[in-house]
Every structure is written in structure tokens, then in C-alpha cells.
């Protein structure tokens, strides 16, 4: 099993997430739900501002795990649970910890924190290390 230091994925900082990032993500997904780029629509839905898409945060998890693997394995599964919205202008911190290992298959607990240190999104990834990894 890995040492305690090896069990922690290096934290990743991202942001601030600006309006153009949200609009670019809408285009990438071909999903133009207006709450992600229109303040008035977001306010009418009872939101504080334009929210960051859940799939955007999901993709951040995937990118963090991919970068951590550095070609030493492949992602088998990934999931996310959205606990609290993050909004335009947010700077986010992502992290993870290996919580299980069975042979070459690792389970990684993932989290995303807002600027106040609240975990707004949690998740899990399962990866399989290469035979030489």
C-alpha cells in the first residue's frame, strides 16, 4: 500500500471561472440553458448568480485524475455528487485521496472546495494501473 504522502493527490487550483468559460462550456456541450450565462434567468430561478455547470466540475475531476495518472494507468469509472452550487467568479480547489486498493485497481475519493473551504462537490474515481505502473 502507498505511504500516507503517496495516498494524497496533489491539489489543483482553478479559477476564477468567468462568464466566457461558462459560455464556452455551453457550446462544448451544445446545452444553452440560459441560467449559465444570463444573470436575470439565474436570479429568476432563485440562484445567487450564474452557476458553474455540474458537467464542468465533473470534467475538472476527470482532468485531475488523468494528470495524476501521467499515463501510468486508465480511468475505469468516475462519479460526482453536487452538494452545493458554485457560481461565476469562483476559484476552486480540487483534491483527492486513495481510499482503497485491490491489486492494480485504486479507488480515489475526490473533492472540490470553494474559496470558503466548503466541499461543494464530491466524487469517486476508480483507476487501473498499468502492469509497469
Task: Kindly summarize this structure in a few lines.
This protein has 133 residues and is α+β, with helices and mostly antiparallel strands. Helix content is 25%, strand content 36%.
Outline the structure in words.
The protein is an alpha+beta fold. The chain has a single domain (7-129), classed as Hotdog Thioesterase (Thiol Ester Dehydrase, Chain A), CATH 3.10.129.10. 25% of the residues lie in helices and 36% in strands. It contains three helices and five strands, in the order E-H-H-H-E-E-E-E. It has helices at 19-29, 39-44, 54-69; strands at residues 8-14, 73-82, 92-102, 105-113, 119-129. Strands 1-3-4-5-2 form a five-stranded antiparallel beta sheet, with helices on one face. The protein is elongated. The model has no long low-confidence stretch (mean pLDDT 94).
Structural class: alpha+beta
What is the CATH superfamily label? Hotdog Thioesterase
DSSP strand tally: 5
- Assign an overall shape: elongated
The order of strands across the largest sheet is 1-3-4-5-2
Percent strand: 35-45%
Quote the distance from N terminus to C terminus. 14 Å
What's the order of the H and E elements? EHHHEEEE
Please write the CATH class name. Answer: Alpha Beta
Total helical elements: 3
Helices and strands in order:
Layout (H helix, E strand, L loop, with lengths): L7 E7 L4 H11 L9 H6 L9 H16 L3 E10 L9 E11 L2 E9 L5 E11 L4
Antiparallel strand pairs: 1-3, 2-5, 3-4, 4-5
Amino acid at each position: 500500500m502507498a505511504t500516507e504522502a503517496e495516498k494524497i493527490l496533489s491539489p489543483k487550483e482553478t479559477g476564477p471561472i468567468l462568464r466566457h468559460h461558462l459560455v464556452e462550456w455551453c457550446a462544448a456541450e451544445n446545452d444553452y440553458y440560459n441560467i449559465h450565462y444570463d444573470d436575470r434567468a439565474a436570479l429568476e430561478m432563485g440562484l445567487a448568480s450564474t452557476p458553474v455547470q455540474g458537467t464542468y466540475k465533473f470534467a475538472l475531476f476527470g482532468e485531475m485524475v488523468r494528470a495524476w495518472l501521467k499515463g501510468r494507468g486508465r480511468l475505469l469509472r468516475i462519479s460526482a455528487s453536487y452538494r452545493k452550487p458554485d457560481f461565476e467568479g469562483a476559484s476552486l480547489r480540487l483534491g483527492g485521496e486513495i481510499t482503497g486498493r485491490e491489486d492494480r485497481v485504486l479507488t480515489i475519493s475526490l473533492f472540490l472546495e470553494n474559496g470558503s473551504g466548503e466541499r461543494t462537490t464530491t466524487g469517486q474515481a476508480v483507476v487501473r494501473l498499468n502492469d509497469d505502473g
